[in-house]
Every structure is written in structure tokens, then in C-alpha cells.
TrEMBL record:
Domain named Methyltransferase: residues: 43-130
Signal peptide: none
Keyword Transferase: yes
InterPro entries xref list: Methyltransf_25, SAM-dependent_MTases_sf
UniProt keyword annotation of Oxidoreductase present: no
Keywords on record: Methyltransferase, Transferase
Pfam families per the UniProt record, alphabetical: Methyltransf_25
One GO term (biological process): methylation
Protein name, UniProt field: Methyltransferase domain-containing protein
Annotated GO MF terms: methyltransferase activity
Amino acid sequence: MLGSLREAYDARAAWRDGLVKEPWKLAERQAFRDRLAPGARLLEIGAGTGQDSAYFQQEGFAVVAADLSPVMVDHCRAKGIEAHVMDFLQLNFPASSFDAVFAMNCLLHVPNHDLPAVLAAIRAVLCPGGLFFVGVYGGNESAEGPIDDDEHVPPRFFSWRTDEQLLGFATAWFDVVDFHPVDTDRGHRFQSLTLRRPDPE
């Protein structure tokens, strides 16, 4: 699954780098930025071409980007961002390395059977009290697999989760700071979730 996903994003990296972000995505990003302390250490997973990482870096945060696509990572580095070829199953960073993790439309590519391990890995690299933004499309149904009309080749794997499913996975590892749906410009429903790693007991 990861191999085909990498191939799909490698092939479309230049096209994706030219996309203009919708206003609702900018608003979600700004809301998360406003929750962070000045100079926070932030990891973006599924960073793509680094548009969001560049924004956070310009806002004064210490940013590291990770993406499974080498071509995407090249785009990140061209923007002056520290970036690593790394997928969500192998976050090779020391424990408690970051104050925040940002994942916009990344975890919708994680199968349900792998999601607990991915969330555990993200929790491990967050410091206690650290914040984690998850943004994915979903909420209306539970389904997994490639979509027939995907413009990417090969078609990408998606995991669509109901609100209850998504919150169930998340609360096994994190405390919920905020959850709300967004009705997007394209008619898709977006799930916005801000989580906090609990402090040690």
C-alpha cells in the first residue's frame, strides 16, 4: 500500500505544489497555530510539498517535515525546510522530540488495523502536554479502499471513518481539545480534531 501511495504522490508532486489552499484549510491551520507556544518544535507528517511547514516556519516555529514521497521531500527542502523521507509507520525521532504534530489529510491513508500503531508512534514523539492536529475527510460512512475516480495513478488507498470511529481511535491515546466538522467548498465533509498528549500520572 505504501509503495503505490509513494508512486502516486511522486508523480503529482509538481501539480500539488501549485495548488492554492482553500480558505477553510487556512482557517484550520491558523487555529492550530494560535494554540502553540512561541518557538514550539513542530513535526508535520504527510507534509507534501511543504506549504504548511513553510507557513509554520515563517511563524517562528522550529519545523521538521516528513513525507513518504522523495519528490515531495525535495520540494520541502527547496523551501528551506528540514525534511525527511519517512512514512507514518516509521517515525524515527527520539521520544518527546516535539511540542506539536500537524497532520492534514494524511491519516486518511492509514488502514484501520494500522492506525493504533501510528497514533502510538505520534504520541511517543510528542512531549507530555504536546498538541496534535488531525484533519481528515470523513464522518458520513465507514469504508476502506481505493476510490474509482482518483486523479492519481495508481489510485490511492483511503480509510473513511465516522466521527465515532475517529474519536474512538484518538481517545485511546490522547485527550480531546477540540473536535468539529467542516463543510468544505467541494462538498466533502472534513473532520478537524485537536488532541493533547496527557501528562504522566
